[in-house]
Design brief:
11-stranded antiparallel beta sheet, alpha+beta, 39 strands, about 775 residues, about 25% strand
Length: about 775
């Protein structure tokens, strides 16, 4: 794999991604997210912006273009720096995505233009840094029209409640209708204002403006043929109750070889005075440049918290850069209970406060009986009680993971509310989740499937069907809670959880082993799913990988079931959820059988599940196989090998269609996939084998034969561990010796060091 394609490439340091072709089959996005504002930008600058919630705290529309029009005031020629106004791509057109910013540049009519969009970490504002350079031999008189389309408060609403006007050299937008509270909980749903304002400001001060879309764009509201740009001046329009825009008119006169530097701010604020305060922080070229330098420094520090160095340069570059950027964006993209819990299991390693903030939302999404909502509670959004069976289990799973990571046993005594009233400690939340699953179990003590376990499309077993895979997750959660109970003086609970885990493991090995692999489930009538007796859906990957990861499978079965996965399931793009895929609808199994074979859940390579297989392969010492699977999921690899993989080469996606679909390589749902955090854990905890435990960091590497040495920088409980793992030729497993700051340590558990300490750890593999 090389980090470049026909018209795209990563920079040498991996911190930027550039493309030089505008006409893509679908947009390639960047997510510029901070705690204060979140903006999505395509490779032409288009996309939404929101604050606390994408549904209830909007600033810009989904189809907002972020156009920068330029007009020659003498010739009347007009174009956009974005390069979207003509069928023909402008000269030198380029889009560069970086961490927290996107830059567009092009040359038209001897004017080299660029606009860099970025979000400072500390304020809810987009900064547009615009530069125009006269490359010709004659003076130029230019007029610039930066343009946005507003969407205040709710993602969908009537524009009749808007009031967009010009004041203090800024556009200010208000919305007098913000019904974000669920109608069942309040009677004043329609009787409140959005608690923010939108604003647009500039340097230099504008010579004109428009706030009403039809006044700026003219008939048909076509922005690319905007009347004000064609005619050369805005209308200074401002009115209540009209479809709104934000357009400022900026003038720049350029001598030959001269350049003009402009700044545009688009953001949200508490009120007009707060908007003026934000303008004072970023509203000049010098202030904007300082903020951009600060943004780059922020990302350097954030990315440097945890790093891995591998013999494979491309994996190293991607893992320490865009992979982590994708993880950061995922924090704001996904609010499902199961997704959030799994993501925070990885984020806790290098940003425990950020993980804990999300964990609070998870606990508060639980009901008193132990069940949970399907999604966490964001800004008044009322989400339904889940009809999937696995969600409650992710709470104790994540809690065990977080305490292993931080040593914060006090978390177990913190109190959080329940979704239906009352409150309980974190320990009580977790215990209620386990008790709920215990009550909601069926044959062999396995959890009921309901309308799907982790696989939402396995929903035909809603009466009495049970999930073997979920039994394995249940076993992990019980084992973690047994340990937490024992360490916090709850001996009776520890014994109870331990006994339940042992009973479950015995039942899975006794009743769910099919000779070469574990079954996936039992249907409502007790028939097996994922059995050698079936023609379709004969073997499923998740119960095999989790039997290994959970430590339920004995050593011989662990290897046998993963060998069966390789033999019976492998495809050029990874491992499908099941094989063979379903070619006819089966009501007893569910919606998964209704997808086209080889597509989506029905036999595509589902990347999230492949990450678990990678971890399982590392666990049983088949690291060469794990590395092969890892490489097949890398976005750049898929982009280079398959023309149908037309999503971003710098972001993980959810699935890739397999050969039986007839569209091998077609990929869906980039950026927003649970794959991203598990892939990082596969590197740190799978190959490097550095895993947090209650009493320290365990080092149990599983290295591919081609890797003779790797290095990991890993924070843990306030200290920083710099671990170098060395493997002689032919030795890929087994810690022979380990040194911490030059002192030999027995075994392979790195002791817990005092906060603030930095330690050098050397690990030699061998027997």
């Amino acid at each position: 794999m090389a980090l470049r394609g026909e018209f795209w490439a990563f920079s040498d340091d991996g911190r930027e991604f550039s493309l030089t072709r505008r006409d893509l089959r679908q947009p390639w996005r960047n997510h510029l997210y901070t705690d204060r504002l979140k903006s999505t930008l395509t490779h032409t600058g288009a996309g939404q912006s929101f604050g606390r919630s994408p549904h209830n705290d909007r600033l810009l529309r989904d189809d907002n273009p972020r156009l920068v029009f330029v007009r020659d005031r003498e010739s009347g020629d007009a174009w956009t720096v974005n390069g979207t106004d003509t069928p023909r791509q402008p000269a030198d057109w380029r889009c560069t995505h970086g961490f927290g910013y996107t830059r567009l540049s092009s040359t038209t009519n001897e004017i080299a233009g660029s606009v860099t969009y970025f979000l400072p970490p500390d304020e809810p504002v987009e900064v547009w840094r615009i530069r125009l350079e006269n490359t010709g031999a004659r003076p130029r008189r230019l007029r610039v029209f930066p343009c946005v389309l507003w969407r205040f408060g709710l993602a969908t609403y009537e524009t009749g409640f808007d009031h967009v006007h010009f004041d203090d050299n800024m556009i200010i937008g208000e919305c007098h209708h913000w019904p974000w509270i669920d109608f069942r909980s309040t009677y004043d749903k329609y009787n409140r204002d959005w608690d923010r304002v939108g604003f647009m400001a500039s340097s230099p001060a504008p010579s004109g403006f428009d706030c009403v879309l039809e006044k700026f764009a003219g008939e048909g509201n076509s922005l690319l043929r905007a009347r004000a740009v064609r005619e050369g001046a805005c209308r200074n329009s401002s009115k209540k109750g009209k479809e709104s825009c934000g357009v400022l008119q900026l003038d720049a006169d350029l001598a030959p070889g001269a350049a003009a530097d402009l700044v545009v701010l688009v953001g949200m604020a508490g009120d007009a005075a707060d908007a003026a305060r934000i303008r004072s922080l970023y509203g000049t070229p010098a202030l904007a440049d300082a903020a951009f330098a600060g943004l780059k420094g922020w990302w350097t520090e954030y990315l440097d918290r945890i790093r891995i160095e591998l013999p494979d340069r491309d994996i190293t570059t991607f893992a320490n850069g865009w992979h982590r950027c994708n993880m950061f964006a995922r924090y704001y993209l996904r609010f499902g209970v199961r997704d959030t819990a799994q993501d925070m299991g990885a984020v806790a390693a290098y940003d425990a406060p950020r993980a804990l903030a999300r964990m609070q939302l998870l606990y508060e999404s639980q009901f008193q009986d132990g069940c949970t909502r399907h999604d966490v509670h964001i800004l008044g959004a009322i989400h339904h009680r889940t009809i999937n069976s696995d969600l409650p289990l992710w709470l104790p799973w994540l809690t065990g993971r977080y305490v292993r990571e931080t040593g914060d046993y006090a978390l177990l005594e913190r109190t959080f509310g329940y979704a239906d009233g009352g409150e309980g400690t974190v320990y009580e939340h977790c215990a209620r989740a386990l008790d709920f699953i215990r009550r909601e179990s069926g044959r062999f003590g396995l959890p009921l499937m309901k309308c799907g376990d982790w696989n939402d499309c396995l929903n035909g077993l809603a009466r009495t069907g049970v999930s073997v895979w979920m039994g394995l997750l249940y076993h992990v959660a019980l084992s973690d809670m047994r340990e937490l109970a024992a360490r916090t003086g709850r001996a009776a609970d520890a014994e109870r959880f331990g006994a339940q885990a042992r009973e479950l493991a015995a039942a899975i090995n006794d009743k769910c082993w099919d000779g070469r692999w574990y079954l996936m489930a039992f249907d409502d009538d007790g028939g097996p799913i994922g059995s050698r007796t079936e023609e379709e859906g004969r073997i499923w990957v998740n119960p095999q990988s989790w039997a290994v990861m959970a430590g339920v499978a004995p050593a011989d079965r662990a290897r046998t079931c993963m060998e069966a996965v390789e033999e019976l399931m492998d495809t050029p793009v990874g491992i499908p959820l099941m094989a063979p895929p379903y070619t006819r609808t089966q009501q007893r199994i569910g919606m998964i059988t209704r997808y086209a074979p080889g597509h989506h859940h029905n036999g595509s390579s589902w990347h999230h599940a492949v990450t678990w297989a990678i971890l399982a392969e590392c666990r049983i010492g088949r690291a060469d196989r794990a590395l092969d699977l890892y490489r097949r999921l890398l976005p750049a690899y898929l982009s280079q090998k398959y023309e149908l993989h037309d999503v971003e080469p710098y972001a993980y996606s959810s699935y890739t269609d397999t050969p039986l679909s007839g569209e091998t390589g077609r990929t869906g749902v980039a950026w927003n996939s649970g794959t991203v955090c598990w892939m990082y854990r596969a590197l740190i905890e799978g190959f490097a084998g550095i895993t947090p435990e209650f009493d320290g960091l365990r080092v149990d590497p599983s290295l591919p034969a081609e890797w003779r040495a790797i290095a990991v920088k890993r924070p843990y409980r306030g200290a920083v561990y710099r671990v170098r793992i060395e493997a002689p030729a032919g030795v890929t497993r087994g810690v022979k010796e380990m040194w911490v700051d030059g002192k030999r340590v027995a075994g392979n558990l790195i002791p817990i060091l005092p906060p603030g300490r930095e330690a050098d750890v050397r690990v030699a593999l061998g027997t």
